Amino acid sequence: PIRAAIAGLSAGGTLKIVSMYLHSDTILINHNDFKIEGGGSGTGFTRSNGTFGNSIEVEAPDVLTTTIFRVNISDIEIKATVEVTSGSMLRVTEAAYCFFNNISIQNGFIGMHLRGLRACFIDGLHIRSGQLWTTVKANSRYMLIEDSPSGLSYSENVELFISDFDFASNGVSSYVEHSMEVKEADGIWFSNGHCFGGSVSNLFLNAAASPQLLGLKFSNVWMDGNTTRNLLITNTPTGYAGFYQFDGCSFTGATSIAID
Q: Cβ distance 138 to 178 under 8 Å?
């Protein structure tokens, strides 16, 4: 029913989520100009299978040639009741002029995965991972940002605004490998956030094999301990890299800040 409701939305339509919908495979959002609105806690999507890949995908039907526009998702939970071992809870690819507001993501392998976004806004993002794990999971992230696979003009992440976010483990153990990893950018603003408990780092700026990693600004962001490195900048870029700015940020509780 939920897939039929999403597929049946016309331009300008709104789908109201009134409870938690249980699903065991990917929910695809693949057309333009509509809203998905929940009612906050207790409304959204729950996955009951930990191995099928991405929980929710936002992308055009032919992502290699087409961009998805003006999708608005707000006031929902996206969570799992089982141990998740692959994929992301919310993956957005080749998107422009989209809004993601007041979203809570729990128990994912990768919380939110962004691939080639332009002029998109993410506000009020709450991610918790690691509660169901007993060891560090390689390649796990709260947030992963990289270029899309299409190679189109929108494949870069440009004019992306991420604000009022909280990424954390279960509060005790650091089983997520990196809190945030950014692999491609040409203008991303992070503001008013908290990253806690990445096992290797809380912020990983990874320029390896990246076409560019430029123009990252962090304002009032707390990189909060229980980790080896709060900030890790590593690997010689294949393209352009640099122009990183940190205003009013705090780095606490980690072994080091590392530039490799």
A: no
Residue 122 or residue 174, greater confidence: 122
Instruction: Give pLDDT, residue 252.
Output: 85
Long-range contacts of 99-103 (CB under 8 A, 24+ apart): 99/71, 99/72, 99/73, 99/74, 99/123, 100/72, 100/73, 100/74, 100/125, 101/72, 101/73, 101/74, 101/75, 102/40, 102/74, 102/75, 102/76, 103/73, 103/74, 103/75, 103/76, 103/77, 103/78
Q: What type of residue is 202?
A: N
Rounded to an integer, the average pLDDT of 146-175 is: 81
DSSP 6: H
Number of neighbours of residue 242 by Cβ within 10 angstroms: 12
The β-bridge partners of 219 are: 191, 247
**pTM of the predicted model, to two decimals?**
0.94
Q: Are 192 and 164 in contact (CB under 8 A)?
A: yes
Distance between CA atoms of residues 162 and 216, nearest Å: 11
Residue 72 has pLDDT above 90, yes or no: yes
Contacts of 33 (CB under 8 A, 6+ apart): 11, 12, 69, 70, 71
Strand-pair partners of 143: 112, 180
* Mean pLDDT for the stretch of residues 131-159: 83
Comparing CA positions, the residue from 70, 64, 76, 66 lying closest to residue 27 is 76
Comparing C-alpha atoms, which of 236, 238, 232 is closest to residue 254?
A: 232
The whole-chain average pLDDT of the chain stands at: 89
Q: How far apart are CA 142 and CA 146, in angstroms?
A: 14
Tokens 């990917």: give the residue.
Answer: 26
